[in-house]
Amino acid sequence: MWNRLVTVLGTFLVLLGVSLTAHAADNAASGKVKTVASFSVLGDMVKNVGGDRVEVTTLVGPNGDAHVFNPTPADARTLASADIFFVNGLGFEGWMERLENASGFKGALVVTSGGVMPIAMRAEEGHDHGNEADEPDQAEAEDHDAYAGQVSDPHAWQNLFNGKIYVTNIRDALIAVDPDGADVYEANAAKYLAAIDAEDQAVKAAIASLPKARRKIITSHDAFGYFGNAYGLEIIAPEGVSTESEASAQDVAKIIRQIREEKIPAVFLENITDRRLLDQIAKETGAKIGGVLYSDALSDKDGPAPTYLDMFRHNAGALTAALSS
Ligand code: ZN
Predict the structure, then answer these.
(1) What pLDDT sits at residue 24?
(2) Pair (166, 242) in one structural domain
């Protein structure tokens, strides 16, 4: 398997070879801090904190699934010329190390979830990841080292309290790379943090207004563990914390039983996953489809969740509408 990995990396490096030097000159030209964000939620946060001083390129865009992303040579070229690479961490971007190595990236790698209290992946999911056990890739091996063997749920941004930690990390990283902009970054972050606080209160109030017995939902992959813990909602998902593993027939049968026994009122689709499995579950149980929740990606700019804060406004609104009575 190492041979295969080396071959893949080798091909990638050859593809990149010519362009690496050409891009080094671009940074000075724009005068802006060049940042790359691994996925759309981070891209929005970086824009809010960086404002006009930064250029933001997002690798996994609106409605994209970062769990199964395949970086292209063009992504590697983008990264090669960046000053900062913002990633979520917690194993979310399994492709990250490969891309970073292949690109020859020399800037600052910033793990924006640094400092959050991770939720350990639910125990039963540990055995459920297909071929991962016999073929660990390099990124995964390194993740395991970094987190002392613990596998964490990566979706920490789904708690707005954690979102504030992300924003603080982004602010500090921008100041470190561009000290002249410190006042701007401080002011932008302060304003943004206050808006996140206000939304946090609003989501808490919205979920607290729901009858306790109805605070249970089904989503397709397990992206709302942090949301559920923070705001008091029970989330049941046939797929694990990554979209890479498909739900087994047993998992689905178990969930169908659970919906019937516990009278779970609604099933929610996600913007990044296929809806067929949930349509089937809804049909077999009579649970209603409560709408679409934005989990691992924002919507495009004309959709209902083009920013991180809009994502929470939309999700809280959809949950309230489906579960209130
Ligand atoms: Zn996810």
Answers:
(1) 41
(2) no
Indicate the pTM of the whole model.
0.83
pLDDT < 50 regions, the chain: 1, 3, 5-26, 123-149
**pLDDT at 111 (0 to 100):** 98
Tell me, what's the pLDDT at 28? 52
Beta bridge partner(s), residue 270: 293
* Structural domains in the chain (count): 2
> Would you say 60 and 154 are in contact if contact means Cβ atoms under 8 Å apart?
no
- 172 in the same domain as 114: yes
For 263, residues 6+ apart whose C-beta sits below 8 A from its C-beta are 213
- Which strand (E) or helix (H) includes residue 270? strand 266-270
CA of 8 to the centre of ligand 1 (A): 26
Handedness of CA 23, 53, 83, 297 (dihedral sign): negative
> In this structure, are 181 and 308 located in the same domain?
no
CA dihedral of 81, 86, 89, 95, whole degrees rounded to 10: -30
**Ligand 1 centre and the CA of 220: distance in Å?**
10
Contact present, 157 and 26 (Cβ < 8 Å): no
Its sign, for the CA torsion 129, 133, 135, 139, is positive
pLDDT at 177: 98
| CA of residue 113 to ligand 1 center, whole Å | 15
- Per-residue confidence (pLDDT) for residue 150, from 0 to 100: 56
What's the CA-to-centroid distance between 69 and ligand 1, angstroms? 12
